[in-house]
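Chapter summary example.
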Amino acid sequence: MSDANDPTHDPLNLRMNWQQDFITKNILVLGYNAWLGYLKGERGAVICSTNRPRLGMVGEGFQTHFVPQSRLAGFLNAWLGATDRAMLHPSFVNAHVLEIVETYNPITELVFLLESFNQVTFFYLRNLPICPPKCYEEICNNWEEFQPGVEDFLN
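The structure predicted for these 155 residues follows.
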């Protein structure tokens, strides 16, 4: 018998647990993209959508992009302005996201927006278990593990 007050059965709690698991499993890729984008010259936000996963030899993969601060306002207006998308937390409006992007520390933090179905959730990730420069370094040092070889697709 389940208790209606049990937080493990709360739909919002279940959704947040799924998102936390997603971040935990993909922190290297998120940090890599955040640092790679920053190395190109400016702060920005990492954007990821789970709506169209790519299936590969090691499971699902998700396209992740870095949008630099100079193009972020236009991107957010177009992306979040679509009638089929809504911010999970309406209090996080574009101005708030842009303010965080302007002030976050790219060496130790990252800004992340996750699209799932018709909702977008904003994350300001601090106190990371591995900082973005280390994520970048880890992926660069082990590039083969993150990029399947052509022969994998031919067999």
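To summarize the output: The chain is about 45% helix and 20% strand.
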